[in-house]
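OsmC family protein, Undibacterium oligocarboniphilum. Tokens?
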Amino acid sequence: MEATVRWTGLSGMSFLAETGSGHAVLMDGAPDGGGRNLAPRPMEMVLLGTGGCTAYDVVLILRKSKQDVRGCDVRLQAERAETEPKVFTQIHFHFTVRGRNLKPNLVERAIKLSHEKYCSASIMLEKTATITHSYEIIDDLSLPSEHEAAE
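Tokens:
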């Protein structure tokens, strides 16, 4: 895996990040640190990446468990150390999983497997942060089942 991060110029603290897979994202610093608040902060990107990593796992695991999952949102709330290095010290993940007739034990299992085995980002952050999670299931019977939708 590769990435390149370039400072965009002499004024401000914006950086253009380019991934090895050919995608680009802008990052910026806080105004009190010379940034102009034009884009997410680098540590926000770490949090976003962690949310994406675990949401991906949860959806994949639920699909493999033959669950009719239709949506998965993860809200992350994090606290950082007050002194340098300002690592994450606590992160809470709240999952909202939507679908039809989802089994709570399988949703909980998917979240647990992600955090304990598959999500490299959350496992890495667990070295400095206490990680907790909660979830809710929204059973939307108004959605057609996968079988009905295919007809």
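The beta strands are 3-7, 15-19, 24-27, 68-80, 88-100, 130-139.
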